[in-house]
Known about the structure:
Strand content: under 5%
Radius of gyration: 27 Å
Helix content: over 70%
Distance between the termini: 89 Å
Oligomer: single chain
Number of helices: 5
Largest sheet: none
Number of domains: 1
Amino acid sequence: MGRAGLKTSFFAMRLDPVYQVPDLLILLPLLFLAWGAFIAWRWYTVWKSADAFYALKQDQGELSKSVSEEEFRTGYVQAEAPRAATYAFVSALVVAVLIPPGIALFTQLWYEIWTLTGRYEPVATGTMVHTFGTFLFCVALMVAVLYVAMKRYYSNLPPRLSDVIRQLNGAVS
């Protein structure tokens, strides 16, 4: 018995959350859209700032006069573009798309294995063991996606701008 004769249990309490799951599912695409727009804007600003940086480097004497603006822009964008942020965005988007069907597939596989092994009740779908297995599956999926993304990113590392300038100056000399 609780206070004043009311029978309450912590586990029987009904919580009224401010945000329901459908509200959050609407929010997720908006967050990805905003994040993608921000990264696209960063790519655009790098592309636009290449001309000003070209003029600055030529005025400072760090860049040979024979290097064309197009050659410099290509190297500058390759060196200064937000590639890491783009890889992170694409990885998060892939994970967000793969998690729902992945959980459905994992749960179906779990159910089939549970049925074939005699329907042992403590490991049925919806139990704590199944929930923890689902959590581990989600973590493994995220790790696999990040492994592929980081392996690709680090195998194709962008050059430093100083290396690009040195190469452009050496290529025309």
